[in-house]
Amino acid sequence: MDAMTITTTASPDPVSPGNCHFRLGQLLGFLLLSSSLAGCVVGPDYQKPLIAMPGQWGSSKQVKAPKPAELSNWWKRLRDPELDALVDEAVAGNLDVATAKAKIREARATYRQTAGTLLPSLDGSASATRNRVSATSTGTSAETSSQFQTGFDASWELDLFGANKRSVEAAKYGLDAAGEDLRSTLLTLIGDVTSNYAQARGYQARIALARRTAASQRETAALTRTKFEAGSSSALDVANASGLANSTEANIPSLETSYAEAVHRLSVLTGRAPAALTDRLKRSTPIPTPRLPVPTGVPADILRTRPDVRTAERQYAQYTAKIGQAEAARYPSVSLTGNIDTTALNIGDLGKNSTIGWSFGPALSVPIFSGGQKKAAVEVAQAQRDQYFVAYRSSILTALEDVENAIVSLAQERIRNGKLAASAKHYRDAASLSRSLYQSGTSSFLDVLDAERSLYSAEDALLQSRVAIAADYIALNKALGGGWSGLVDTGKPEVKDVNTGPHIVSNRQLMTNWQK
Fold it and tell me: How many alpha carbons fall within 13 Å on the CB side of residue 212?
């Protein structure tokens, strides 16, 4: 056995007035002592750890103090009203967000449930009995009687060493962590919506480019065929021109597939069927272009802006409190229990012409021998706390890495984009010049073929780079902890229950529901 229980119950026997005052004084003294001890807790008190952070980002070359990151509604700096509307719709309809809101309601109810252990509990009861004693062979007549009884039972655990207080503390930290999980879900959701939207617009632009290029190449092929019929070109030139046009057109189906997948993902992210946004997004618009540069603040900012870091810190706090729960189990516990009941032959006599009984007293539970289980439970809690502390530190390093990578990626992609823009311009000039020279007969068709192939590749790469810049901008804001800053209603349940009060259900209905 883990504990020995010693119960003392006050006697309801008649006592002298002096003795009654003496017992009442003892009881009051015991309650005062218990109340003072109820503020005691065991186990470590949580303190937010101090983590050494870099003074600035490793890729930063700024001499002046960096501007704080502008994380509120960061996606609006992509300057696309359609994207803004989709983000709002995703926040309202996304199923992952609905799950996170339900988890907050669960954590909130768990906290209230746990906090209830600090208060006394009171239960009421009532009964009515009808008795009949049959007549005996000696001539005694039959007797019928009724008995009515009502009463109350009360109990209160004094929580001398703070087991329940630590449990409430852990539940509060769990509620905080659930809130941060919702912020993390929103951060991921908004990042996914903006990324898929930018990709969808990028695929539309690349499809349009492929079609324009293929049409131009078809015109070149027609020109080559005309020159061949006139005897100034070869069948090889005609075949190469037609082959290049077909090769360009062959890219369109795969681009259409990727575009459809991005639109389907957007639809699902907003809580709709996959094809719900197909008609709405079919009209092409430019690839979202962010306002640059992006202020990044200082590394220490992520401790308060990254929801995954904040979640890890709250979980570390929660498991610190659980050490106190385990430690308190090694100490004695005291609870107060009492009851009062009244019994009468008539219901109108309850509390008046009736018997009244009561009992009241403390119950003391003292751990004596548990084979080391309770000490081991403390060590388990300490090891779990250490794991969450390491996870907290790891989340910080991951956040720092995400930001550093995003800063470098965005800066380098902007450089690459400038080079690709210059390359596309030069290839555009080369293609125009080679076509003119070919028409005048001063250049071979291979020069035209090579120039058009290079131009298409350069322009397609430029479009992909513009999408990559948008993606890097999105990744940087996600890494910095940018998410939804508006209100989210977490109190409204997803399922509205009806007819929850007492109601009659037939056996047939029960069998039907069971079979379903």
Answer: 10
Long-range contacts of 349-353 (CB under 8 A, 24+ apart): 349/148, 350/148, 350/150
Residue 455 exposed, middle or buried by CB count within 10 Å (0-12, 13-18, 19+): buried
Cβ neighbours of residue 188 closer than 8 Å, sequence gap 6 or more: 96, 478
Q: What angle do CA 99, 171, 377 make, to 5 degrees?
A: 115
Contact between residue 101 and residue 179 where contact means Cβ atoms under 8 Å apart = no
**Residue ranges per structural domain of the chain:** 3-12+19-128+146-494
- Which amino acid type is present at position 284? S
- Omega of the bond leading into 307 within 30 degrees of 0 (cis): no
Least confident of 362-366, 388-392, 396-400, 457-461: 362-366
φ, ψ for residue 5, nearest 5 deg: -105, 125
Element (H, E) at 340: strand 333-344
CA end-to-end distance (rounded Å), the chain:
46
Query: 374 and 436 in contact (C-beta within 8 Å)?
Result: no
Query: What's the residue count for the chain?
Result: 516
CB 268 within 8 A of CB 274: yes
Could you tell me if 191 and 90 are in contact, meaning their C-beta atoms sit under 8 angstroms apart? no
Using CA atoms, how far residue 348 sits from 127, 147, 149, 187, in Å, is 14, 11, 11, 65
pTM of the model: 0.84
* Chain Cα centroid distance, residue 195: 19
β-bridge partners, 473: none
Q: Report the run of H or E that residue 443 belongs to, with start and end.
A: none
Q: In the sheet where 143-157 sits, what is the strand order?
A: 3-7, 355-367, 333-344, 143-157, 121-133
User: What is the CATH number assigned to the segment(s) 3-12+19-128+146-494?
Assistant: 1.20.1600.10
Kindly report, residue by residue over 214-264, the tens digit of the pLDDT. 999 998 889 889 888 888 788 988 898 899 999 999 999 999 999 999 999
DSSP class of 279: T
